[in-house]
C-alpha cells in the first residue's frame, strides 16, 4: 500500500484543529499550501506561534490583549459607571463601531451552550461578578439574541441581581435570531438606547 | 478607535492563505484557536513548518515526497511499461486502493484551468513528456471527467501523440453496480456512444 509522506499526513491531521475543517478540506488545504503557497504556509506557521505566545486575556475585561490590561481598560477616557457584557471580541468591535457606548466591557469569550460542553463553569462568571462589584455600576447584557445568548443573558442577570447589581438588557430592536456581529450600527445604537431593566 | 492586538490581526490575515477561507472564517478560526485550542495551534504551526521544509516533489512522478525519488518510483515491483497521468495525489491514492494498476504514475498537481490562472505553462508537461519518452511506454490519461480534466486530457494527448507516444484514456460509462434508471442522461448518452463490441 502506497502512503503519503509522513510530514504531509501530519499537516493534514493538524489542519483538522481549525473549526469547520474536515478531512477533505484539510487535504485540499495542505495540497494548496505545499503546491502553490509555501511562503503563505511559513507565514501562517510563524503567525500562529507568535499569536499563541503573545496574546493573553486582559485581567479586567477578559478580551484578547498583548498587555496585562488592554488599552481600552487602561484608557482614562472611558466612563466607569457602565459595564457591557458581550460574547466575543468581534461583538465588542461592533459596539465600538456603533459609537453608542463609552463605558467598560466584559468579554465572555463564549456563551452557555451545553451541547458544545460549555456550561456556567466554563465561562468566567466569577470574574464578571468581581468586576461588576468593583465598579459597582449598571451591567448591560449585550449577548446575542440567539437561544444560547438569551440563556446566557438570563443566567448572568439572575446571578448579578442576587448580588444586588442593577442589570439591563439591550433592547430587542435586533431581529430575533440575529447576531451582533452582522447588524447595522443604527439598529445596534437604538438597542443600547432602549435597554430595559430586568425586573424578574 | 479600539483595535485588536496586532499579533491577533496578523494571525487572522495569515489564515486567509488557506483556500476557501475569507475574513469572517479567518476571524472565527483565530478566536477558536486562541480561546479553545492553543495546543492545536502550536501543533499546526510546527506541522506547517516541518511540511514546508521536508516535503518536495519526486523527480520521477512529481508526487509529494520526502525523498528525491518516492517509494513508489523506486520500488522494483512496479511495471515499467505503463504511465498513468492523474491530477492530484488523492487520485493516485484512489487508483492504488482500486488495486487495478501496477504501473508508474505522473502527478500533474493541477489541471488546465485558465480562469484560475493555470495554463499549459503552469503544469509540468515538459517533465511528463521527458518521463514518457524515458519509459517509452503507453500513457493512460486518468484526469477527472470534468470540463477542466477533459481539456487537460485532450491537451496532453495531442502533445504526446505528436511525439509518437501511444496514449489512452480511462473509460467513461455507467458505474459498476449502476442502474440505467438512476444514472444521469449525460453519462448514459456517453455510454451508448462509447459502446464496445461484445466479442464473446
Structural write-up:
The structure is a homodimer of 200-residue chains. Chain A has two domains: 6-54, RecR Domain 1 (Helicase, Ruva Protein, domain 3, Orthogonal Bundle), CATH 1.10.8.420; 57-169, Dna Topoisomerase Vi A Subunit, Chain: A, domain 2 (3-Layer(aba) Sandwich). In chain A, the strands form two sheets. Chain A has a five-stranded mixed β-sheet. A two-stranded antiparallel sheet of chain A has the order 1-2. Chain A contains eight helices and seven strands, in the order H-H-H-E-E-H-E-H-E-H-E-H-E-H-E. Chain A is of the alpha/beta class and 200 residues long. In chain A, helix 1 (6-15) crosses helix 2 (23-36), helix 2 packs across helix 3 (38-54) and helix 5 packs across helix 8 (185-193). The first copy, chain A, has helices at 6-15, 23-36, 38-54, 71-74, 89-98, 125-135, 147-162, 185-193, and strands at 56-57, 64-65, 82-86, 104-107, 138-141, 167-169, 196-197. The N and C termini of chain A lie far apart (66 Å).
List keywords for this structure.
8 helices; 2 domains; two-stranded antiparallel sheet; 200 residues; Dna Topoisomerase Vi A Subunit, Chain: A, domain 2; five-stranded mixed β-sheet; alpha/beta
List the helices and strands and how they pair.
The structure is a homodimer of 200-residue chains.
Chain A: H1 6-15, H2 23-36, H3 38-54, E1 56-57, E2 64-65, H4 71-74, E3 82-86, H5 89-98, E4 104-107, H6 125-135, E5 138-141, H7 147-162, E6 167-169, H8 185-193, E7 196-197
Parallel strand pairs in A: 3-4, 3-5, 5-6
Antiparallel strand pairs in A: 1-2, 6-7
Helix pairs in contact in A: 1-2, 2-3, 5-8
Amino acid at each position: 500500500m502506497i502512503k503519503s509522506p509522513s510530514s504531509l499526513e501530519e499537516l493534514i491531521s493538524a489542519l483538522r484543529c481549525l473549526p469547520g475543517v474536515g478531512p477533505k478540506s484539510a487535504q485540499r488545504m495542505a495540497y494548496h499550501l505545499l503546491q502553490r503557497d509555501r511562503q503563505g504556509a511559513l507565514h501562517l506557521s510563524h503567525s500562529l506561534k507568535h499569536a499563541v505566545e503573545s496574546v493573553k486575556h486582559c485581567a479586567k475585561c477578559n478580551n484578547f490583549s498583548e498587555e496585562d490590561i488592554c488599552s481600552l481598560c487602561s484608557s482614562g477616557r472611558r466612563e466607569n459607571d457602565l459595564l457591557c457584557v458581550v460574547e466575543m471580541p468581534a461583538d465588542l468591535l461592533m459596539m465600538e463601531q456603533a459609537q453608542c457606548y463609552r463605558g467598560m466591557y466584559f468579554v465572555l469569550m463564549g456563551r452557555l451552550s451545553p451541547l458544545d460542553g460549555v456550561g456556567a463553569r466554563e465561562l468566567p462568571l466569577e470574574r464578571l461578578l468581581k468586576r461588576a462589584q468593583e465598579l459597582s455600576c449598571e451591567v448591560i447584557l449585550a449577548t446575542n439574541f440567539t437561544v444560547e445568548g438569551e440563556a446566557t443573558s438570563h443566567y448572568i442577570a439572575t446571578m448579578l441581581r442576587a448580588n444586588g447589581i442593577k442589570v439591563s438588557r439591550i433592547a430587542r430592536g435586533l431581529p430575533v435570531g440575529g447576531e451582533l456581529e452582522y447588524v447595522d450600527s443604527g439598529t445596534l445604537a437604538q438597542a443600547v438606547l432602549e435597554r430595559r431593566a430586568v425586573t424578574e
